[in-house]
Amino acid sequence: MVRRKTVVERNKELEKEGKKLLFYGMKIRAITTPAQYQLIVKSIGCARFAYNAYLAEKQKTYKETKKAISYSAFKKDFVVLKKNPAYEWLSEPDKFALECAMEQVDDAYDRFFKGQTGYPKFKSKHTSKQSYSTKETNGNLVIDFEKQRIKIPKLGWINVRFSKGQIASFQESGFNGKVKAATLTVHGSQQTHISLRIEEVVSLREETDWTTIPNEKIIGCDLGLTHFLIDSNGNKIENPRHLKNSLGRLAMLQRRLKNKIKGSSNYKKQQQQIAKLHLRITNTRKDFLHKESRKLVNENQIIVLEDLNVKSMIKNRRLARSISDVGWSTFVTFVKYKADWDHKKIVLIGRFFASSKKCNGCEEKNTLLSLSDRTWVCSKCGREHDRDLNAAKNIKEEGIRILAET
Ligand SMILES: [Zn+2]
After folding, report:
1. pLDDT cut 90: percent of the chain above it
2. Which residues are known to be catalytic?
């Protein structure tokens, strides 16, 4: 078998031609036929079976022999199992879906050994995310922008709805990527999404000297809870608080669910309503984050942001709901990849940089500043500060300092 070249190797070759590989994702709403939907649900079940079977075998082998069973060894057994008439149903979905599921077990172990996640768990029909993944082989994953459809193994062409942004970017520059993998997710509300991983060969751009960018094209941003964002020019973006507004309704729906008989058709209907509301909240939040990150990248050359370790902040439970509601980390991700597309610069500054406490006028540190102080007066130079605006200005300056250093 010919070994596939790694991304690093391919990039090395492409570099000679002034090109590189770019990877990105695309999430699309699918409009499935009932038959397609049925097969997707079945495929999810089969993928879960493959995942759990491999995980169980790994655990058993380790218990008995203290040795790890390899994927290739298990795959041989699995092929035999599939031939058994009792497991005929495993041949219904495309075989790459089952392979991907087993590879996910190895990935889960890798992350566990790196200390990134807990010990791999079995997947459940009720609590795990209902999705399966498949990978590209001989061009079997195809995207058709004109007819708004995507071809997936065994399912054939699935009608989809591309977003306005996706269509606009296709019309502007065409689609030159290659679909490498697809994940199909079914939500409790019976909606289906397809997430694609796309690889594209793009030209390397000339190096820019970022220190020559004029000051007005550089912006510092402070992400907060009272405002979603405040920039060093004094623009404030209010917090949308989607979740908070919908929480009342969510609580009501969940209360109603309690009064229904588990497993009854009314119970299921109620569950679907709750899932729908969750999905709507997620979508509205994403739209908001896309819109604001696009604007920020369009209007500036260099964007300075705080490197938030949201995860550690979320451990503070009182703030947790508001923070995950605001979606800072998603926002930073969006800004990063949009900036990468448009050849703009992102500077992340360490989260221990005391951006709020330093006076932007004289650099005096206000050690008495507490979280509830929204405005303050510098004891040394007498300047009056809006807490967040002062922080945004400091963030911008720190970004410029870091840029000059590197
Ligand atoms: Zn001062």
Report:
1. 40
2. 222, 306, 388
